[in-house]
Amino acid sequence: MPHCRPTFLAMTLVLSLGMVGCAATNPGDTAALATPPAAAPAAGVTKAGYVLSAKELELECKQLTGRMQIRILEIRDYNERNRTTLASRALQSGATTVFGGSTTGTDPDGAYAKDRAMLEAYNQQLQAKGCRTYDLESELTPQDVRVTPNATIKPAKTK
Question: How many degrees, rounded to 5, is the angle at CA 105 between CA 99 and CA 107?
Answer without folding.
Answer: 105
